């Protein structure tokens, strides 16, 4: 198949959340992806079996943590693979080798191999059912990394952890980022249930990096780690921050490793104080890999953090007025965005363009964000899962001092730009589908790529 046909076929498999989760455990398991991975490795002549991996789960920060760690490994001279989700504009974003999205040609070749193998295995009764959209993309990542000569692969879970298709990797290190409420219909309605799903990526004897957690989540993860004899490195105990300042919305810190006294200059180009924690997650993982002989220097750590990019997360598109994209799609992320406003935009007028999906805690998110904005412009991203802008206004508009409904995201952005003054700031946030749609529109609007 060519690239366009490959993408169409993948999309025909259904929406992303048709992935294995707690709620569908009776129907799904890791059996399909385990078999696919094994057969793909056989057809690649065993390539990929020697690829080392890091596996990352959590509610917020796992994508940024993955990007930081991949950048560190690349700066250390390793050939890297990075598998993340969701994508913003192009599906290729999910599978990267040596810092670059795989090409359309490689994507099509990889999908064609997977499709042919899937048909053979279905005909032979080796698979229970056709792989899901997410299982198929995960299998493609395994195959692309194997054939692309990847030495170190960083995998971000798609949803949960225990039954996520990525959970067939055998990692050298696992990482659990901050856990909060999200996808409750799939992962459970308590922090203990959600943490149990995330902790499902822990493997016996494999060290785990743990970001600061609320008490219930921490208890669950530490209990699972004890049962599996996993050494736990908690970042808040592993490091102390001795100096901290700001540069254009980005945190700058001197961080000391408590056990060794080794100091690091942490200077991400990703905005928001929360990126300091995501960077520390990556530094902690890198230190564990270094202890295992990965050859990661202090210079590689600092340069990797400074050079990492992660689109759509407090990504600034222009100044005067400042325009930001941020995929704050759950209450925890909304609180981080509100903290960014307080730290960097206190006393300035804020304009908010907001759109959400139907399964999100919109009233709670709106309660955090909407009262801080001069005007909230409600819109809806182009996806069947979107909550209509008018229904969103009925559900959450009461939180806003002033509220407008503009269904088309592009028109909503233009309204905000027309109303905002040079000293104001515009934030386009909520669904990552909205962020991706506006990011694509912005490129056509300004006639150049967003970086």
Explain the overall architecture:
The chain is of the alpha/beta class and 451 residues long. It folds into two domains: 305 residues, 3-Layer(aba) Sandwich (UDP-N-acetylmuramoyl-L-alanine:D-glutamate ligase), CATH 3.40.1190.10; 132 residues, Alpha-Beta Complex (Protein-Tyrosine Phosphatase, Chain A). It contains 16 helices and 17 strands. The strands form three sheets. The chain has an eight-stranded mixed sheet with strand order 4-3-2-5-1-6-7-8, sandwiched between helices. Helix 13 links the parallel strand 14 and strand 15. The relative contact order is 0.11. About 2% of the residues have low confidence.
In quaternary terms, these chains amount to: single chain
What is the count of β-strands? Answer: 17
Instruction: Note the main sheet.
Output: 8 strands, mixed
Class by SSE composition: alpha/beta
Q: Can you tell me the overall shape?
A: globular
Report the β-strand fraction as a percent range.
15-25%
- CATH structural architecture of the largest domain: 3-Layer(aba) Sandwich
What are its keywords?
16 helices; globular; alpha/beta; single chain; six-stranded mixed sheet; 18% strand; UDP-N-acetylmuramoyl-L-alanine:D-glutamate ligase
Q: Which SSEs are present, and which pair or pack?
A:
Layout: H1 3-12, H2 31-43, E1 52-57, H3 62-75, E2 80-83, E3 95-97, E4 100-101, H4 104-123, H5 133-147, E5 152-156, E6 173-176, H6 184-187, H7 191-198, E7 208-210, H8 215-227, E8 232-234, H9 235-238, E9 239-247, E10 250-257, E11 263-266, H10 274-291, H11 298-307, E12 315-318, E13 322-326, H12 331-344, E14 350-355, H13 362-369, E15 375-378, H14 389-396, E16 403-405, H15 409-419, E17 425-430, H16 432-446
Helix pairs in contact: 1-4, 2-5, 3-10, 3-11, 4-5, 7-8, 12-13
